[in-house]
Fold this sequence. Notes:
By secondary structure, the protein is an alpha/beta fold. The protein is built from four helices and seven strands. It is about 25% helix and about 45% strand. Strands 1, 2, 3, 4, 5, 6 and 7 form a seven-stranded mixed beta sheet that branches.
Amino acid sequence: MQTLDALYRRWLFQVWNGDYAVAEEILAPGFTGHWPDLEVHGPAGAIEQVRRSREYFGDVSTTLDVGPVVGDGMVAAGWSFHGSYRGGIAGATAAPGTRVSFSGHDIFRAEGGRFTEYWVVSDALGLMTALGAVGRPAPHTGPGRVRQGR
């Protein structure tokens, strides 16, 4: 049986990098994922949410900033998401190619060597501000790096 630390690293570094088959291995059939304003069910629901989240970005990478902290069947971690904006987010004024980064936190509950429940909080407001969709406009119109979060 894999450790919860290893399961989390597979989630962050494989699933979030587009290896969706891994989700079927690490998420229980009855998995429930809680995103702000959205709840998904089963590995297929989680895969679809990750896919939708990634579709606006190319050159995606994730970094593990804190943890994972493991105890009593729970895993908590802090991460950062990095990518190049492809376009398509309603209201965004940033040019395609703009580099963005934002951070967040995950909490998982596990049973039987698989994740059964998930909660995520991320700096979506910082991301949308960096893309010029809310608040101030994007700071530039060409490719470059916009750093938000942390």
